[in-house]
Design brief:
Largest sheet: 6 strands, mixed
Number of domains: 1
Order of helices and strands: HEEEEHHEHEHEEEEEEE
Number of strands: 13
Shape: globular
Structural class: alpha+beta
Helix content: 10-25%
Oligomer: single chain
Length: about 325
């Protein structure tokens, strides 16, 4: 007896593991760093100031000295200019009936449940995608950018490069001119990091939150270069892609917001400001089933802005011809 399968197609089991797998997406790690350093400013609904005070004193000889006031106190401001951002999407559960995805849906013609496994997977992916875009925007945002995803507010890189401090001085750009026309690898990577470290003002080096931020691509190149230098007497072990520059209290920190940016900057973590309306807004997703459109609708609204308090306390490097914002 022979089987006749001519009327059938080869069976493919699509439901043995009906779980939808998500691609790797990075999180908004810079926002967490700023928050941990106390740099998140809430209540930023419109242009809002970051208020800065500086006091310069003059030492005087007290012997027989009458009271003679000296020195000055200077109060200045920098501005957080928030972009108002909306993320709106919808999907129709009925269209999933035709594929293996139907196994993720609740039985019934009216699939109004927004907590089905598919919706939960979608919402998680939705939030991760928003976080990844925010991570890039925090560093590379530019209201004049050709990339519409980055035009809502100016990011840290632009504020660092174009900003000036209370007394008119700006950030220190290191290795300019022909010295910036390099490929960030090998000895050049070590030279760049050393130049940023040496370009930082001495008064901040004793602080415990000084770091050199760069993309994961440059971090990999630098750690490879250090390893290949056979500097085995230094400890370069890292945690969460952050490691100390050998012999210093300054760390190198990789952030995805600077991936492929050809830019690195050294500064105090507490020097960065992130303006928000409310801290939880970027995860406050509203989802509902619309009977009018037979679709699950998802909405998220938040405000974001960045600023650098003291540009004069930053040292940065960018490859010749590159604009990181």
């Amino acid at each position: 007896m022979a089987y006749d399968f001519s009327a059938l197609t080869t069976y493919i089991n699509q439901t043995a593991n009906a779980k939808l797998l998500r691609k790797s997406i990075y999180e908004a790690e810079t926002a967490k760093i700023i928050d941990a350093a106390g740099g998140v400013q809430q209540g930023v609904k419109t242009t809002t100031t970051v208020n800065i005070i500086d006091n310069q004193i003059v030492l005087q000889n007290s012997a027989g000295q009458v009271f003679t006031p000296s020195g000055s106190t200077k109060i200045t401001q920098r501005q957080l200019v928030p972009g108002r951002i909306s993320v709106m999407q919808d999907f129709k559960p009925a269209l999933l009936d035709q594929y293996f995805t139907e196994f993720q849906l609740k039985p019934g013609a009216y699939a109004e449940n927004t907590t089905d496994p598919f919706e939960e997977t979608f919402t998680g992916l939705f939030l991760d995608e928003v976080a990844a875009l925010n991570e890039t925007g925090i560093w590379r945002g530019n209201i004049n950018s050709s990339n519409p995803q980055l035009t809502f507010y100016d990011g840290l890189a632009k504020n660092i490069i174009l900003g000036t401090g209370s007394y008119g001085s700006g950030s220190n750009q290191v290795l300019t001119g022909s010295a910036s026309n390099i490929t960030f690898s090998g000895s050049a990577a070590i030279t760049v990091v050393d130049a940023i470290y040496n370009g930082l003002p001495a008064q901040i080096l004793g602080k415990n939150d000084v770091a050199v931020f760069m993309g994961y691509d440059w971090y990999r190149a630098w750690t490879t270069a250090v390893k290949n230098q056979n500097l085995f007497h230094y400890t370069t072990d890292s945690a969460n892609y952050e490691t100390f520059i050998p012999g210093t209290n300054v760390t190198i920190k990789a952030v995805h917001g600077l991936d492929n940016s050809n830019f690195a900057v050294g500064l105090r973590k507490s020097n960065m400001r992130l303006g928000v309306d409310l801290s939880g807004d970027t995860t406050n997703v509203i989802a509902w089933y619309s009977n009018d459109f037979k679709a699950v609708r998802v909405d998220l609204e938040y405000k974001y802005s960045t600023q650098i308090c003291f540009p004069e306390e930053c040292a940065y490097f960018t490859i010749s011809g590159s604009v990181p914002y």
